[in-house]
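Contributing new records

If you add data, match the layout below exactly. Sequence lines come first and carry their own label; structure lines follow with theirs. Keep one chain per record. Anything else will be rejected by the validation script.
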Amino acid sequence: MDNIKKILAIETSCDDTSCAIIDSNKAIIANIVQSQYDVHREYNGIVPELASRHHLENINFIISEALVKADCSFDDIDAIAVTVKPGLAGSLLVGVMTAKALSYALKKPLIEIDHLDAHIWANFMKYKPNTEIFKPRFPALVLLVSGGHTDLYFMNSYSDFYILGRTRDDAVGEAFDKVGKLLDLGYPGGPVIDKISAETTGRVTLPKPFMSHTYDFSFSGLKTAVLQVFKKKKFTLEDKHILAASFQDVVVEVLLRKMKKGIKEFGIQTIMLSGGVAANSQLRDAVCKLAKDSMIACHFPPRPFCTDNAAMVGARAIDLIK
């Protein structure tokens, strides 16, 4: 695969339909993402059957749009990359079958990509023509936080990395959505609570599920604690905002506690964020401060590349074939 110059990448693991065209230097030529927020908003969460149906409706249009934006045709594509796991079964099936059909029809190699690896590789792309690809100093920690995952990775190199700890119950993004739904703040809960937290000064005390003897996480107890506080009295909108902000404070503190433990134990030189919750302002600020206090490097993707996108799938594919 040494002659590959352009990869067409497809991402349909959850509710975003995305196609990107990436060159061999991991520069993004095109990256089209069709969100389904409006489809799932009324349910305050993702409905798998609806997600897969909308992928099926959107996928061909998204691929065509990516080719137009990249000013190229299928003849210019040297390989097809696609997310194959993990994710919603029906959603994945749409992307995988589309990629297989393209690979067969165009006689181009098919590169299968792990969705979680792709999120890590969102840190290692050329986002714009005038930007440089971030190169971490190893060993590194990567905190992958999203609606479906909360994983802390140890990276010894680009090819040697593994999970130190992960959530034992709710993913952090899922917890944000459920708290947002409980307090009737809107969907998705993460961005709404992030904005509320920045504008709210009051706080209430909530338990901190550190599980300090491991690198694992647990957020179901914290979510239940929010519910118990909410049941105690009739809440005003201001009360809801204070409770939501307090919830986010604890989440960020828990995540940072695990990263601090890893920095100390493994002599970490770089910390990184990835996943949709990596767009959270308070978390980004806290990670920057942690890196500064620890005198190490930190990095996180621009916000559009924190959520699911095909560009990160293509970037991972480039490094896999080198």
